[in-house]
């Protein structure tokens, strides 16, 4: 998992403790907690609040310098120990070795030829760090009393990781010693590097991530110092902001949902060895085998000896990769930008439009996405825009006209326009919206490309500018596509071209839907799951046909709902001839990478 962090050498020794009294530190922590717990700033004041919180954090970090636990040597020094430990625990370690892949950092290299769909890696449960193992550890007494830990598995896992790192006899030390000393998540960005993200769609999530992390740190610092059930925690003597930032980033970039031992629910886990795999485009090839109680991974494709072994992290945008994983993926087939659209309740035709949308299974207001692919919009967004731009007569036709119920199914199908005028109107509207979004950026695409050519640009600045440029390029392509569509339909109207008529015998199915289901039977997918106002990750969507509750696919650093799963969450996936059933939990407000206090 080298892309999630640069390879850094950890400092040796624990360093000299900074001269600061417990009372002085507690006063600073209290001030930070109060600042982070105050009411949300007014629009436009978020950056100012971020700067103020950051100043307090930097003051605390300065006084805590040298107090963090660290290991002698580099993470590379401990890879052989990790492999030995894995083999002793029953993991498969014969097909690969850990190697450095330059810009991608450390990853897994094939030690022999591996065929596509061949099972080459399995990790038994005893190696995993989970919320369940945290409950059985020294953290257990505090977990039983603290509602934040009980509600947020990610925070529990972060503190579990810190406690085990401080324990010389921890069974997970061979794994923990190989984790990066620091990361490239925005929590590690300098203020000027974060400034490059201003006006991007990622900035609000980045600022919230920092605020939430600072608030959680201040909260748990006070809990660890004052709660009776925290008296035996090794963190009581040394719990720095840098410690918590490291733990949060370790969990955020690596955690996954797996089933509990009895298969009744899901829990969060860190998966040693497997989490060294870097990302590429493809399909999910990892699952959890409850029968053998182990995580299993089959090869995404054929690998020759010496080639790097990749896995697919899921359909994440580059904003999600930057915020949660700390890297920008150049060839991201799933990149997209958010666009919030809704029918105004004050509009005269609101009730009619809302009813047509409801029959199509689409909310009257939602966050959709413009994609990097062609066309840039999904069938759901096309359906929404068609209804959004309908006249009263057209709305009435789709509500009470001939074959009204069946015609609802055609709303997301490009072959059945509502009218040429409707198509012209919707593409004009979307072209205007995309153009307006482009104007919110302070720099042009050309200026961004020039900045990226500077050899002295820091890695974090480069990541931020690449993300900013990628958003603009998606919007620019959208504007160009919308303009071409608008001109095409204007020509159809001018030439008096006949409008394709819907026939009842037609199979009116959605375009771009893998399962070819009518729109009313499908959920809003990416628009409703991966471009939420919260920092959501992509939903597990394997191609499926049956249920096998004994095996569950997982994604690197990804889960949907930290604390629960929906009743209909088991969906089958076939990997290498074996059936897997993913826990497809409905996106919740608390996500693994939000680290939001509840």
UniProtKB/TrEMBL annotation:
Signal peptide start and end residues: none
Gene Ontology MF term list: actin binding; protein-L-histidine N-tele-methyltransferase activity; protein-lysine N-methyltransferase activity
Pfam family, one: Rubis-subs-bind
Main location (coarse class): cytoplasm
One GO biological process term: methylation
UniProt-listed InterPro entries: Rubisco_LSMT_subst-bd (IPR015353), Rubisco_LSMT_subst-bd_sf (IPR036464), SET_dom (IPR001214), SET_dom_sf (IPR046341), SETD3 (IPR025785), SETD3_SET (IPR044428), SETD3_SETD6_MTase (IPR050600)
Catalytic activity, EC: 2.1.1.85
Compartment list: Cytoplasm
ATP-binding keyword on record: no
Domain SET span(s) in chain numbering: 94-314
Record's catalysed reaction(s): L-histidyl-[protein] + S-adenosyl-L-methionine = N(tele)-methyl-L-histidyl-[protein] + S-adenosyl-L-homocysteine + H(+)
Class in the EC hierarchy, top level: transferase
GO cellular component terms, A-Z: cytoplasm
Coiled-coil segments: none
Keywords from the named record: Actin-binding, Cytoplasm, Methyltransferase, S-adenosyl-L-methionine, Transferase
Stated family: Belongs to the class V-like SAM-binding methyltransferase superfamily. SETD3 actin-histidine methyltransferase family.
Protein's UniProt name: protein-histidine N-methyltransferase
Gene source species: Sinocyclocheilus anshuiensis
Phylogenetic lineage: Eukaryota, Metazoa, Chordata, Craniata, Vertebrata
